[in-house]
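ok new one. same drill as before - structure tokens go in, u give me an amino acid for every spot. 309 of them this time. try not to just spam alanines like last time pls lmao
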């Protein structure tokens, strides 16, 4: 018997800034979904391209804010509170639903009352580099899974992993933890998931729910991202200490990347892999010690310079 998804009132929430043609692809794909959302809320940070025109064309609910007012957690919380849905489905402007059942498959795990949130698989774009492809393969495997509080001894830091590039939450549970933390430099999704896990709920990884999404970051961009992760982990040490450190997961990632490059006979990428992963390690640990750094130096190491001033 097919599950009746009509009982779910789903609000899709997308923060935007100059989304371009890819954002139009996202909206077009959403219009073709087997599960029709009750609303699509666009929180736009004063785009100066045709983002708002595209949003209006697809009959979205638009809320415009100043660019300086955007906050990863706060902006998503604001949108969540104004949404009418009992399921809040967060996306980014460049995560394109892979097929017509992407939303339906992302919502499917909520038939399990233990599940408080779910996230889908991210398939790399055709132009993705070897490093970008591996990142998606490592974080988003082909097998679905459900992780709960008691699984942290097995999965460690990975237990609380979730990505708001394509994730859904029960609104009442988000409300019970005050939605997403404001003022975070990075990782509002994972920190909120850690709170839900502590309350006894689980996170589902729905591998059948797919979007196309990837970024070809340079070595320096990777450095900045991992610096920001280190900063966020330093500021939320008490929340994450129950899950252990991410060092074990980091070692597994490096070994996996090396193995993939060797299996694909891309030996010429091995020196870059060493450089990238060394930069990530140094950046993460530098970010954890950011309070020792002059403010302007820390800002120069960060992906989000505006956060520092």
């Amino acid at each position: 018997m097919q599950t009746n998804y009509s009982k779910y009132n789903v609000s899709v929430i997308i923060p935007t800034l100059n989304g371009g043609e890819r954002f139009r692809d996202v909206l077009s794909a959403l219009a073709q979904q087997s599960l029709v959302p009750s609303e699509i809320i666009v929180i736009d940070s004063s785009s100066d391209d045709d983002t708002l025109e595209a949003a209006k064309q697809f009959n979205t609910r638009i809320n415009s804010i100043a660019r300086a007012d955007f906050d990863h957690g706060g902006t998503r919380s604001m949108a969540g509170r104004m949404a009418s849905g009992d399921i809040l489905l967060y996306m980014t402007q460049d995560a394109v639903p892979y097929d017509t059942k992407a939303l339906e498959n992302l919502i499917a795990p909520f038939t399990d009352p233990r599940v408080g949130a779910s996230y889908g698989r991210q398939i790399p774009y055709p132009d993705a580099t070897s490093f970008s492809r591996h990142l998606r393969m490592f974080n988003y495997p082909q097998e679905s899974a459900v992780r709960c509080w008691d699984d942290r001894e097995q999965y460690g830091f990975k237990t609380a992993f979730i990505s708001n590039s394509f994730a859904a939450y029960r609104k009442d549970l988000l409300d019970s933890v005050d939605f997403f933390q404001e003022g975070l430099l990075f990782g509002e999704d994972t920190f909120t998931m850690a709170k839900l896990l502590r309350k006894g709920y689980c996170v589902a990884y729905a591998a059948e729910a797919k979007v196309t999404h990837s970024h070809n970051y340079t070595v320096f961009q990777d450095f900045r991202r991992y610096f920001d992760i280190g900063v966020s982990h330093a500021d939320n040490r008490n929340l994450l200490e129950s899950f252990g450190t991410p060092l074990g997961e980091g070692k597994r990632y490096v070994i996996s990347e090396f193995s993939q490059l060797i299996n694909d006979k891309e030996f010429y990428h091995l020196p870059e892999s060493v450089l990238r992963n060394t930069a990530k390690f140094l950046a993460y640990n530098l970010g954890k010690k950011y309070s020792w750094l002059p403010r302007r130096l820390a800002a120069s190491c960060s992906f989000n310079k505006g956060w520092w001033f």
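Residues 219-308 form one domain. and btw The longest strand covers residues 202-212.
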